[in-house]
Amino acid sequence: PDRKSLTSWDRAKRSQTKRVLITAYDHPFAKLAEQAGIDGILIGDSLGMTIQGGRDTLRVSLEHMLYHTEIVARAAQACLIMADLPFGSFEASPAQAFASAALLVKAGADIIKLEGGAPMVETVAFLSARAIPVCAHIGLTPQHVRQLGGFKKQGKTADAAALLLADAQALAEAGARMVLMEAIPAPLATEITKTLTVPTIGIGAGPGTDAQILVLHDVLGLSGGYVPGFARTYLDGASLMRDAIGRYADEVRTQAFPPPG
Ligand code: KIV
Ligand code: NA
């Protein structure tokens, strides 16, 4: 079945078929995700934390995103490929956003994702009118972590919830083909999902969104300590891998590896 075209995502929403995304940043994990039947892969700027070891996503550059988008897109050809516009690569003007987004599309992205609500409506319209499909990311937007004062749940008051709903509608009207909501109350995410005709993706937003996404390293237990409360870990990957590397080291030291001859 078609997982890649945006029309297939629209159809999935209409038929209430849940879709699943995960982040991936390199060839082997992108291949595994696709083979596991994932519908979409996000090359997230979360790579600043998961693979670069940063405290937040603010140091990720467009060049980093282009490199990872290219290797993931080469590995996974049946899934939807979504790539993040990193901090500093799109906010100054719609023209800046277009130049950066076009490079991500050339690197293999089917759709680009950018963080921000009302201030990004004009940019979303500009990109959408120029052949670049956009997913708008609202709620907890990690590039705004310093303004938000931490990775905190958003949309908790009635006023904040109303603003998020209005933002989602404005972004969709501007042409956003998807809206991703991070760390907002489940009833709000459900209401936004019912209001919009475009597919919604949730993370920490309850079960009511059209699709779900998690960060690969959280799913596999490779995040080394901090995992957000809304994530779920399906494997103790760190222990298994540390163990395997340790066994290799032991075998060399005891001369069990390599074999003679
Ligand atoms: O960068 C990322 O991984 C993301 C997801 C958490 C939605 O933006
Ligand atoms: Na991101």
UniProtKB/TrEMBL annotation:
Pfam families: Pantoate_transf
Transmembrane segments: none
Known catalytic reactions: (6R)-5,10-methylene-5,6,7,8-tetrahydrofolate + 3-methyl-2-oxobutanoate + H2O = 2-dehydropantoate + (6S)-5,6,7,8-tetrahydrofolate
Pathway: Cofactor biosynthesis; (R)-pantothenate biosynthesis; (R)-pantoate from 3-methyl-2-oxobutanoate: step 1/2
Superkingdom of the source species: Bacteria
Note on how the cofactor is bound: Binds 1 Mg(2+) ion per subunit.
Catalytic-site annotation from UniProt: E182
Top enzyme category: transferase
GO terms for cellular component: cytoplasm
Location(s), subcellular: Cytoplasm
GO terms for MF: 3-methyl-2-oxobutanoate hydroxymethyltransferase activity; magnesium ion binding; methyltransferase activity
BP GO terms, sorted: methylation; pantothenate biosynthetic process
EC number: 2.1.2.11
Binding-site residues, 3-methyl-2-oxobutanoate: D45, S46, D84, K113
Record keywords: Cytoplasm, Magnesium, Metal-binding, Methyltransferase, Pantothenate biosynthesis, Transferase
CDD domains per UniProt: KPHMT-like (cd06557)
Required cofactor names: Mg(2+)
InterPro entries: Pantoate_hydroxy_MeTrfase, Pyrv/PenolPyrv_kinase-like_dom, Pyrv_kinase-like_dom_sf
Residues that bind Mg(2+): D45, D84, E115
Family, similarity comment: Belongs to the PanB family.
Described function: Catalyzes the reversible reaction in which hydroxymethyl group from 5,10-methylenetetrahydrofolate is transferred onto alpha-ketoisovalerate to form ketopantoate.
Subunit and interaction comment: Homodecamer; pentamer of dimers.
Classification via HAMAP family: PanB
Name of protein: 3-methyl-2-oxobutanoate hydroxymethyltransferase
Organism whose genome encodes this protein: Acidiphilium rubrum
Gene coding for it: panB
